[in-house]
Amino acid sequence: MHAKNIALLVMMTSLCVGIQLTPRPPNIEFTSLICFLTGFLFGSFFGVSVGALTMLLNGFLSPWGFGATNIPFQILGMALIGFVGGVYRKSCTRTANPSVRWFSLEVSLLAAFLTLFYDLITTISYVMLFNVNIIMALISGAWFTIVHVVSNTVLFGTALIVLVRISGNVLGERTWSYQKEVS
Amino acid sequence: MELPKRSLIILGLGWLVSLALVSFVAGYYYMEFRNLNELLEQYENVTMEVNICIEYKELNGTVLWYNNTIIPLGCNLLQATKTVALVNSTYSPAQQASFVDAINGVWNHGAIFWMWQHWDDTQEKWEYGNVGADIYKLTKNETVRWRYEIPSYT
Predict the structure, then answer these.
(1) How far apart are CA A16 and CA A57, in angstroms?
(2) What is the per-residue burial (b if ≥16 Cβ within 10 Å, else e) of A87-109?
(3) Taking the model in full, what pTM does it have?
């Protein structure tokens, strides 16, 4: 791997881990957003790598305790978010880029789905560990899931386009172009 | 406007997510309902149901009913009322009973007081209580009423 790529990977992962370890309300996180953004800007491989590495480190360093059997599932969930970021970018370039409004709507709905998927698979690990009924486990954590899904939906819908524009300016390349809104 | 396949798939996923979340919330409240029902069954032998009415006759005429209020067996009227309303009371050592000063922020004023009555099943009429609310022990399925009024027996 090129040194520049390794530096990029390390930087994005450090950013994610740093934010993960910062005190915050339960189930409100920015890691998904950064992983998706990384995948979107630099491709699925980077998205997957940042997601997987972040959750691996988080499993050992998290203030909530050692992740244990949850770690592989967290890695899988976050890697998928990074992967989808890259796939989404590719699908946008294949067709006409969506307008800002459509982009925000699409990424927020994608975030909702990916967050729900993440919560589902991490619940599976809990079910395996404590041998409880999966439906009961999902239902008892319903409000935590809702907080996670809603916060990510709002975050992706509002912040991603801004971050994409800023990254484009910082990187000095036109990373994203969008259709002008019809006035 | 023709939507690309990608947008349609994403909209579909969003729809699925909303369905899943609604199901989770419905399931959560159903589970809570079942748990509370089980708890009620468990405490059936040590609880009873009473009907409590609060009538703001001299204020605005509002009548509020708290039917099937669940209280512990042997609970007195004052304790029962406190489960459905904010009650201010003063204990009188001379009377060895409590005097209700206000219910839900409506205070006794001039000749208007909070009086309590219980429904007499045999005579089918309201009877004024003759003891303090904290002395009167409620019985199963009893109906009581608090009325903000100028006492009619005066």
Answers:
(1) 10
(2) bbbebbeeeeebeeebbbbbbbb
(3) 0.72
